[in-house]
Specification:
Elements: H1 35-43, H2 53-58, E1 60-62, H3 68-88, H4 91-96, H5 111-140, H6 142-163, H7 171-202, E2 210-213, E3 219-222, H8 224-242, H9 245-255, H10 258-278, H11 292-305, H12 327-343, H13 346-353, H14 359-365, E4 367-368, H15 379-401, H16 408-434, E5 455-458, H17 463-486, H18 493-513, H19 523-545, H20 552-570, H21 580-587
Parallel strand pairs: 1-3, 4-5
Antiparallel strand pairs: 2-3
Length: 590
């Protein structure tokens, strides 16, 4: 880690320019300053100064610089997502169909069982982050937890690959190795997911908003909240660049076999391992706290016992109890609790998102694919995100911020509306498929001679549904990740992020419950119901939480203050000494 960057040079008091003296004439007479200029000279903060409340309200907010180490963490996520999407996208065909079916599969479990097992895999992948976050925040730290998860991940993909080689496996053996593999991969995925997004955000210096004077002379506020927002945009773009692996693995599945589709993610995963090794001495690694998650639950328990009043857990209100936390820590738990209330509404959002990996694949199988793999259409979701993220980052968000701040609750609400629109489109498209021959509302099942003949609808028409879900992710999911990080205590970033990810598991559980209607001719009602549920959830979300926008600056202020208070919360009674090296790391530049 390099030396602390010194951006501000102290100037002796006697060398500072007095605005009145600077206006004195050569003959010693005084010429009054213009009143407007005088007010500006006295009130303006200089380049590098901390922004005042007036500056925060009146000046344009911009992002700070993003260090190289952020990109190294992003590569880790890219490699993990390349492997995850590359191997999981063929799962629906792999489970649903047999070797003689069109499209080909292996396990031949049928549509309902395959959809239920697909949702179980999603559920498992987003329950395990809780365990991964607990281990990270209480014992190993984010970096070591991710390294451990990588080893588990490699073992899981290798088992999946070996079980899919036709020459050395049977159907029953393939089922056994598949179940074992998805359980192992799910553990590894959860451990990485709960830690990699907080780790990438940890690489940004925790500083208060400062003033920067641009070359044009414009004074702007360098806002850490905007920097974090941009970091999560980069993070999400890398996720979706990684997900382009589906274009390769679906072709391998279609033309070579499932073993080849699983071998590619196994090999590519080592790119992420390499990025972890390269960045080992560059990453900012916050210290592991002293059972901080347990402390959080104790605070919550005390609050619940006292009619959900968390203030009752403050040591200042109970001096006789000798609590091993501070009042400030209780305030941070209160802030994290507010974030968790917001997360509840994402359950419906993730139920919609899950349609892409199962029911949308089944839908594409009912349409004319023209030699294109029916599970390849997911690439349009990734393509939409990769194109839209830089547009939002560089054009749309900065343009909107010139007129009004586009705050978290607003962005999440917009995401919900895009999600509902995707389900409306899917319902209309499914209705259109059922109106087309030759099998109408029983595609490829109306007669034996039509068992491999889809209805006469071109599969490309499905692309807008993936695009709409992609746009919903940009507004809702990216903001959710950002909100989980910025509203969590500094020593519980991974745990609060895991609580956000847990909503995905609940969404998958709902998907499992809906598996009974994931059959023809019920798909239209399934998509219609999800559209209505998402729209209503979005509206209720806005009604309940839109006022959080008004307090976002206040909540972010707690984030800026955390670096100076974390030692008091994690090491009560030991002062700031244990955190000194961390504060230096956070504020330094590689």
């Amino acid at each position: 880690m390099s030396e602390i960057k010194k951006d501000i040079i102290d100037v002796p008091v006697d060398e500072k320019v007095n605005p009145i003296e600077a206006n004195d004439s050569a003959d010693g007479s005084f010429k009054p300053l213009d009143s407007d200029k005088k007010e500006e000279t006295v009130s303006l903060t200089e380049d590098g100064d901390e922004a005042t409340m007036e500056d925060l309200k009146t000046l344009r907010h911009v992002s700070g610089k993003i260090p190289l180490r952020v990109w190294l963490v992003a590569i880790v996520e890219l490699a993990e997502r390349f492997s995850y999407y590359g191997l999981s996208t063929p799962f629906q065909n792999y489970m649903q169909n047999g070797p003689e079916d069109t499209p080909k599969g292996l396990l031949k479990l049928g549509s309902q069982a395959a959809t239920a097992l697909s949702y179980f895999f999603q559920f498992w992948c987003y329950v395990t982050p809780i365990l991964g976050a607990y281990i990270s925040d209480s014992y190993l730290g984010k970096y070591k937890t991710i390294c451990m998860a990588c080893g588990i991940y490699i073992a899981g993909i290798f088992i999946l690959f070996m079980g899919s080689i036709p020459s050395i496996t049977t159907r029953n053996a393939a089922i056994g190795t598949y179940v074992a593999a998805i359980i192992i991969i799910g553990i590894a995925t959860g451990f990485i997911k709960s830690n990699v997004s907080p780790l990438i955000a940890d690489q940004i210096p925790k500083e208060k908003p400062t003033i920067r004077v641009l070359k044009s002379g414009e004074r702007v506020v360098v806002d850490p909240a905007i920097t974090i927002q941009n970091v999560f945009m980069i993070f999400y773009a890398m996720i979706n660049i990684g997900s382009f692996s589906i274009a390769a693995t679906t072709q391998l599945e279609h033309r070579v076999g499932f073993w080849a589709a699983f071998l590619l993610p196994f090999c590519f995963f080592f790119v992420g391992v390499f990025a972890l090794v390269i960045g080992k001495n560059q990453y900012v690694k916050l210290p592991v706290s002293d059972k901080i998650v347990a402390k959080c639950f104790k605070v919550a328990y005390i609050g619940i016992k006292n009619r959900f009043n968390l203030d009752s857990a403050k040591p200042s209100n109970n001096p006789e109890k000798n609590y091993n936390w501070t009042d400030h820590f209780v305030e941070e738990v209160k802030r994290a609790t507010k974030a968790c209330k917001v997360f509840v509404f994402f359950i419906v959002f993730w139920t919609v998102y899950g349609q892409m990996t199962n029911n949308f694949v089944s839908m594409a199988g009912q349409m004319e694919t023209h030699a294109m793999p029916n599970d390849m259409l997911q690439v349009f979701n990734s393509l939409a995100i990769v194109i839209a993220v830089p547009l939002c980052d560089r054009l749309i968000y900065p343009f909107i911020r010139r007129f009004t701040p586009l705050k978290s609750m607003t962005r999440i609400f917009i995401g919900f509306m895009f999600s509902a629109s995707a389900m409306v489109y899917a319902a209309v498209l499914q209705h259109y498929i059922y109106k087309a021959g030759p099998c109408y509302d029983a595609p490829m099942a109306c007669a034996p001679e039509y068992s491999n003949t889809p209805n006469r609808v071109h599969v490309a028409i499905q692309a807008p549904a993936y695009v709409l879900i992609g746009l919903s992710e940009i507004f809702a999911n990216i903001t959710g990740l950002e909100y989980a990080y910025t509203k969590a205590p500094i020593s519980m970033k991974a745990f609060v992020t895991s609580l956000y990810l847990l909503t995905t598991a609940f969404g998958s559980a709902i998907g499992i419950a809906l598996a009974s209607v994931s059959v023809d001719p019920k798909y239209v009602w399934l998509y219609t119901g999800l559209a209505v549920a998402t729209f209503i959830s979005g509206c209720i979300f806005w009604i309940l939480f839109h006022h959080y926008n008004d307090h976002e600056e206040e909540l972010n202020q707690l984030e800026y203050d955390q670096t100076d208070n974390v030692a008091k919360d994690v090491f009560p009674g030991e002062g700031l000494a244990p955190i000194a090296s961390v504060s230096k790391s956070i504020r330094s530049v590689v």
